[in-house]
Amino acid sequence: MEKILISFLLLIMILIAFHDFKYRAVPLFLLIGLFIMGLFIGMLSQGYVPFIKIFIINFAILLFMILLVTAYFMIRYKKGIKGVIDNYIGLADLIVLLSAGTFFSPFNYINFIIFSLLIALFIYIPIIIIKRQIKYQIPLAGIFMIILSVFFTFSFKIGLNLFFDDYFLINYLKLTF
User: Which of 33, 108, 148, 177 could join 104 in a cystine, given CB atoms 3.0 to 4.6 angstroms apart?
Assistant: First the structure.
C-alpha cells in the first residue's frame, strides 16, 4: 500500500514539474491531488492530532513568509496583492509550498524551503545572466517538486522517515562539520 501511495505521489510531482517547466502553468487538479496526497500520507505517518499541529505550524511559517514577500513586492513595485501573486510569486508556487507543509516537520520544512530556493537561484541566475532578462520566470513549483521527489525516493530507499525526523538532519550536520 505504501509503495502504491508513494508511486502515485511521485507521478503527481513529476507531472507538476513537467507542466511548470514546459508551460509555466500547473493544472489545478494536480495541485489538489498533491495536497490531498500530502494530507493522507501525513496523517498516516504521524497520526491525526500530531499531524494537525505540525501542519498548523507549517502553515503559519508559510503565511509569515508570504506576508513578508508580498509586502516587499508591494513596496518595491507599488502593486496590489493580486498583482504580486499574478506577476511575481505564482499561485501554483504557493499551493506547492502549502502542500509541502504536509510532508515535513517545521524544522525540516524551513530547511526544504531554503534548500529549494538556493537550488533555484544556482540554476537560474546563470540563465538570467545569459538571456539578459531580469523578468525571467523561474518555475519554482517544478523545482520544488523535483527536489521533493528526489527526497521522497531517497527516504523510501533507505527506509527512514526523513520528513518528520528532525534528529537525523541535526546529527548529520554534527557529523559533517
Answer: 108
